[in-house]
Specification:
The chain has 479 residues and is mainly beta. Helices cover 11% and strands 35% of the residues. The strands form 8 sheets. The protein has a 4-stranded antiparallel β-sheet with strand order 1-28-27-26, with no helix packed on it. The protein has a 4-stranded antiparallel β-sheet with strand order 2-3-4-5, with no helix packed on it. The radius of gyration is 29 Å and the shape is elongated.
């Protein structure tokens, strides 16, 4: 993209405004951007993980290892490792250098969601169906599983007055979602009773708990800075919560109060939300709606609705915001396509001519005194040579915004159009040779060829067609 051709007012816009594209390779059930934002991983219902290149919208890698639907995806900080969790009770850590399975961990229940440690790709936390969450260390070939508690830590006064009935109810709680803090020292867990538990990674103990809502906490997401969190619950309310630094020295966790900053909901239609996401800057919150095809975007400064993104005529599931751009991706529940929203940028072609100015209405042109003077050819040639003497730096690479210094891994892209399963009307007819599909290709069943599955049936089908054609010709001759 040539920034000199873009209107600077459009560059200042922080949220997308229109549906600009779509990609597909199978039926996607979940999606996740990597930290750099150059790749989008999608988990399909058949257990395959497909990675798209954002710049080309092409398939960069396919990972096959699961047998059932992918539930969640999680990238490592450097983008080399990808963790996939599935309904087949397994989590797989993929090495994207060569696309191999580095570790495979099997659980005793289906996995809701699994999240990699932000600094250590061989440590992750998993939330299981009707079971307690686990902190899994896969540094060695044999995984070490540490069970985490879901019983909330009540304040001292409440602990003294806690009766046996309340203790039994707390013991029945289960964790639905877990996420690491930015520094990786603590885990934030949401339970089915609306509690937030802060778990210390080293001691595996709950150091703080607070009641966020009365429903089930479905999803938790942090901003890139880790200072704010957004939650989606079954009570149809989206909440944003400022998160303190739990690793701060001298912080008394018994006196810490986690309070809700904003509540986003549809008071009129009482819509439920399928998935929520923070913007790249954390200033906006986007959510996909249940039994609806719109995406709602709220601004956190005033808590107001700023945009409703109209999309395809199908319900949208998982939604993800690009980590550095006003770019939103969401997967359709019915078709499994991944839809992309971004900013439509009209280009200013006048920027190609530095001395050219755009005017809103016609003005009288005043020519310069020497504008049409005739100069010698030698002088014109000398001016061109002087302009060409300007040194151009084509080797220096400018740093990308939000690109950390350790982010040096670049995933090799496998360019295999036969294996892409994209919706492009292109087929391979030979090594290095491509052609577009003909309008009727792939629809042979419409002419009856599907019924002729074996050679004998195909021969009889051809005979019938030939006999019908001969009869038609003989009738024409008699007439």
């Amino acid at each position: 993209m040539n920034l000199s051709l873009i209107d600077p007012f459009i560059l200042a816009q922080d949220y997308p405004d229109a549906l600009t594209g779509k990609v597909r390779s199978g039926h996607a059930a979940c999606i996740r951007f990597n930290r750099k934002g150059d790749f989008l991983a999608t988990g399909r219902v058949d257990g395959t993980v497909v990675i798209f290149d954002i710049e080309t919208n092409g398939v960069a890698r396919k990972l096959r290892g699961h047998t059932r639907q992918i539930q969640a995806l999680s990238w490592s900080g450097d983008g080399r490792y990808l963790l996939s969790s599935s309904q087949d009770w397994k989590c797989i850590l993929w090495d994207l250098q060569d696309g191999t399975k580095l570790r495979t961990v099997r659980f005793e229940a289906p996995v809701y969601i699994a999240e990699l440690h932000p600094l250590n790709p061989f440590l992750f936390v998993a939330s299981l169906f009707e079971d307690q969450p686990l902190l899994v260390d896969i540094s060695s070939c044999i995984p070490l599983k540490h069970q985490l508690s879901s019983v909330p830590r009540r304040p001292k006064l409440d602990r003294q007055d806690l009766n046996e009935k309340q203790a039994l109810q707390d013991a029945k709680q289960s964790t639905c979602v877990t996420v690491f803090t930015t520094q990786g020292d603590h885990i934030i867990a949401g339970t089915n009773k609306g509690w937030l538990n802060i778990i210390e990674v080293n001691s595996l103990e709950i150091v703080h708990s607070t009641r966020l809502c009365n429903g089930i906490i479905i999803l938790l997401r942090l901003t890139a800075s880790g200072r704010d969190m957004v939650s989606n619950a079954s009570d149809r309310v989206i909440r944003t919560v400022p998160i303190p630094n739990f690793s701060q020295a001298g912080l008394d966790l018994d006196t810490v109060k986690i309070e809700v900053e904003h509540k986003f909901q549809d008071v009129v239609n009482r819509l439920s939300w399928n998935h929520v996401a923070f913007s790249s800057t954390g200033d906006y919150v986007a959510a996909s709606t249940f039994m609806n095809h719109d995406i709602y975007v709220w601004e956190r400064g005033h808590g107001s609705l700023v945009k409703i993104l109209e999309g395809p005529k199908e319900e949208l599931g998982v939604i993800e915001w690009h980590p550095h751009r006003p770019f939103v991706a969401a997967c359709g529940i019915e078709t499994g396509r991944v839809y992309l929203w971004s900013i439509i940028t009209p280009q200013r072609w006048s920027a190609l001519a530095p001395d050219f100015a755009e005017v809103e209405e016609n003005v009288e042109y005043v020519e310069r005194e020497d504008e049409f003077d005739i100069h010698p050819i030698e002088e014109i040639h000398k001016r061109r040579l002087d302009l060409e003497d300007e040194a151009l730096d084509v080797l220096t690479v400018d740093p990308v915004k939000g690109d950390p210094a350790h982010d040096v891994f670049s995933m090799p892209v496998l360019l295999d159009i036969v294996d892409s399963e994209s919706e492009e009307e292109i087929v391979a007819v030979g090594p290095g040779t491509m052609r577009r599909k003909s309008p009727g290709e792939g629809r042979e069943w419409m002419s009856g060829a599907e019924n002729a599955s074996n050679p004998e049936e195909q021969g009889s089908f051809k005979k019938i067609v030939t006999t019908t054609a001969e009869k038609t010709q003989s009738r024409t001759r008699k007439r």
